[in-house]
Write a structure and sequence with these properties.
The chain is of the alpha/beta class. About 40% of the residues lie in helices and about 20% in strands.
Length: about 270
């Protein structure tokens, strides 16, 4: 993918002692992790470990009761979702969040919204500056669609596409926001084996070609072991392990947390 946008490869995500409580229940308990610039960092753990809560804090959906989240020198802890997005943080969702009746092209253009400078009046009157800006956004959408492998689907309503293609569209929409950090919530969930392999290749391409930092939540341990430079393991809202994937998968605390999934962890050693 080429273009005027160049990701800032110097931004580090630092999560320090983040705690989240809901009606007396502690969903995250002093969780810390660091996502190094240009790396893939996985957050894993059994169901209910706090992985989605962590993502919701990082993207501004939830506000932490304590702790700090810093990205590239900016404090995110009290910012709204749109202000966090403006700093270069984009995310996908475990359950696809795309308007199904809109075309792929229009869904991707939604990702360009925060980058649009022309005012409502200028756009409505089709003034020259607004037309030029619209053309630039459309060209960028087509470029990103080609990178993600959905260029031939731009005119199709999203709701009529196969599930695996919809997951690619959602990832493309996140890329259309020109992020420095991508939060991927179970990017291969619900896919067949071939689709999983293709998505894994795409995530590698995003890291290597664009230099974008990636934080992902994923249950597929094969994908985690293949993609992640570092892994943080949560259980009951606490960080129980962290480090390179080959070390984490042998950690006794991780094996105990996964119980019956211990064999699955060791399969990918």
């Amino acid at each position: 993918m080429t273009g005027s946008y160049q990701p800032d490869g110097t931004a580090t995500l630092e999560v320090r002692d983040v705690t989240v409580r809901f009606a007396g229940l502690t969903a995250l308990d002093a969780v810390s992790l660091t996502v190094e610039p240009g790396s893939v960092h996985a957050v894993i753990g059994p169901n209910g470990a706090g992985k989605s809560t962590c993502f919701n804090v990082l993207s501004g959906v939830y506000t932490a009761a304590a702790g700090s989240v810093r990205f590239g020198g900016a404090e995110l802890t009290r910012l709204s979702t749109h202000r966090i997005a403006a700093l270069g943080v984009a995310r996908t969702f475990q359950n696809i969040a795309l308007p199904p009746r809109l075309s792929v092209r229009d869904n991707l253009l939604l990702g360009r919204h925060r980058l649009t400078r022309a005012g409502f009046l200028s756009a409505g009157l089709h003034l020259p500056a607004a037309r030029r800006e619209a053309a630039r956004h459309l060209a960028r959408v087509e470029e990103i669609a080609a990178f993600v492998g959905i260029a031939g689907r731009l005119s199709a309503p999203v709701g009529l596409l196969p599930y695996g293609v919809q997951k690619r569209v959602e990832l493309a929409r996140a890329l259309c926001m020109e992020p420095r950090l991508l939060l991927l919530d179970e990017p291969v969930a619900g896919m067949n084996g071939g689709e999983r392999a293709e998505m894994a290749e795409l995530i590698v391409a995003i890291k290597e070609s664009l230099g974008i930092s990636i934080l992902l939540v994923e249950h597929d341990m094969g994908i985690v072991m293949r993609l992640a430079d570092a892994v943080t393991v949560l259980d009951f809202g606490r960080r129980i392990a962290g480090g390179p994937p080959e070390e984490v998968q042998r950690d006794p605390a991780v094996i105990r947390a996964y119980l019956g999934a211990a064999t699955d962890l060791e399969e990918h050693a």
